[in-house]
Amino acid sequence: MTGASVEGAADGSRDGLLGVRAQRTVLTGMVAYVALGAFESLAVSTAMPTVAAELDGLRLYTLAFASGSAAGVVGMLVAGRWTDRRGPTPPLLAGISLFLAGLLVAGLAPSMPVLLAGRTVQGAGSGIEGVAIFVLVARVFPAERRPKVFAWFAAAWVVPGVVGPLLAGAMTQYLGWRWVFLAVPALAVPALLALRPALAAGRTRGSAGRVADDGGDAASWRDVVGQVLRGARGLGTVVLVRALVAAAFVGAQVLLPLALVRERGLAPAFAGAVLTLHVLGWSAGSWARGRGLGGLSHAGFLRVGGISLALGTAGVALLVVPGVPLAAAAAPWVLSGLGMGLMFPTLNLLVLELAPPSAQGVSMSVLQVADAAASALALTGTGALLWALHDRVGAAAYAVCLGLSAALALTAAVLAGRTRPGAVTNSVAFPSGVRDAADEDVLPARSS
C-alpha cells in the first residue's frame, strides 16, 4: 500500500468507506444515540402510570404503547424502500427528526390524546431510523468491522437496562415526568453531530445501491417476502430464524415478572431486577460475537445462541417449582440473554451480506417487521395459553409456556445451517454475483 493509500485509510474514505478515525467518531455518535433511545424506551414504561394519572388518561394507558408500536411497523415498511432508492441518509435524518419531534410533543402534551399523537410520531420515526441506521453501517464500515459495531450497539443497552428504570423513576418523582421525554432531544445533539461524516458518506453512496425504477423496487419486495414465505435457504431462513428467536425470547420475558410476583410473592421492584439479568448475558454474547471468539461461522453462532436461549427459557421454569431457591431459578435467564447476544448481531450481519446494496433496506425492513410481528403474536398467544391452562394445572402453566418458547429457540438452532445461501438463487433482486460475498458463512467468522 502506498503512503497516500495509508493516509486515506486512516483519515479519509477508502473505497467509499470512512477512514479509521472517522469510523471511531461515527461509532461513538451511533452508540451514544442508541443508548439514549434505549433509555427512552425503558424510561417511558416506568413513567407512564404517572403520566396517565396526571393527564386523566388511564383508559388510554395501553394505547400509549400500542400506538407507538403500530407506527413503528409502518415506519419500518416505509424505510425499506426509501433507503434502497435514496440511500440511508435521507430516511435516517427523517426518522431521527420524527423521533425527537414526537418526544417533544409528548413531553409538552397538555392532554392524553396529544401525548398519544406524540407517541405515534415518535414510533414512526423509531421504525424508520431503526432500518436506516443498519444500512448506514453497511455503507460506512468495512465488513470486518461490522460485528464489533453491532456488539457496541448491544452494549449500548446495558447501562440503560440496569439504571434506566431507576433513573426514570427518580426523574418522574423529583423533576416531573415531562423530563423523561424532554431530556433525550437535548442530550441527542452531541451524538448527532458525531454522525455527520457518516451522513455525508451515506448520501454520496446512496445512488450506488439505488433500484432502477419502481418496478425493480417492487421486485425487491416480492423477492424478499417470497423467500421468507418459502423458507428459502439464505435470506428467507435468516428472517424466519429472527422471528422464532424474537417469539421465544418475548414469550418467556413476559411471563417472568408475572411468575415472580404471583407465584413467588416478590415485590415488583425485585421482579424487575431479576428480569434485567438477561442484560448481563446479552452484553457478554454480543462481545463474544463481535470478536469472533471460537472461530465459529455465522451458522455456528446461531446454533450456540439458539441452544443457549432454549436452555435459559426452559431453566427459568424452575421458578414455579416449590423449594427451588430463587437465585438458582433465576440464573438461567442470563443464558437467554447470552443466546440473544450471539444471535441478533449475527442475523443483522447475514442480512447485510446476503442482500445486494439495492435491497439492503428492504431486507432489513422485512427482518425487523418479522421481529415485531412475531413478538406481538408471542405476547398474545402466551397470554391466551397461560390463562387457558392456569385454571386446570395451576403454576405448571408457566412451565408449559416456557417449554414452548424453548422449543422455538431450538427450532431456530436447527435451522441455522440453512442461513447459508443455496447453490441456486431464484431471485430478481439478487444476481448471482452477490452470492460470492455471502458465502463467507462457510468460513470462520472474521474479527478485527
Description:
The protein is an all-alpha fold. It has 20 helices and no strands. The chain has helices at residues 3-11, 20-54, 63-86, 89-107, 112-140, 146-155, 158-174, 178-194, 196-204, 214-230, 235-253, 255-263, 268-275, 277-290, 298-315, 326-330, 332-354, 360-393, 396-414, 435-438. The longest helix is centred in the N-terminal third of the chain and has 35 residues, at 20-54.
Specify the overall morphology.
globular
Report the β-strand fraction as a percent range: under 5%
Largest sheet: none
Measured between the Cα atoms of the first and last residue, the distance is: 19 Å
The count of β-strands is: 0
Helix and strand composition category:
mainly alpha
Averaged pLDDT, please? 81
Low-confidence stretches: 1-16, 205-216, 423-448
- H/E order of the elements? HHHHHHHHHHHHHHHHHHHH
What is Rg? 22 Å
Q: Give the proportion of residues in helices.
A: over 70%
User: From the structure provided, what is the oligomeric state, counting identical versus distinct chains?
Assistant: single chain
Number of helices: 20
What's the short version?
With 448 residues, the chain is mainly alpha-helical.
Summary keywords:
448 residues; mainly alpha; disordered N terminus; globular
Fold topology:
Elements: H1 3-11, H2 20-54, H3 63-86, H4 89-107, H5 112-140, H6 146-155, H7 158-174, H8 178-194, H9 196-204, H10 214-230, H11 235-253, H12 255-263, H13 268-275, H14 277-290, H15 298-315, H16 326-330, H17 332-354, H18 360-393, H19 396-414, H20 435-438
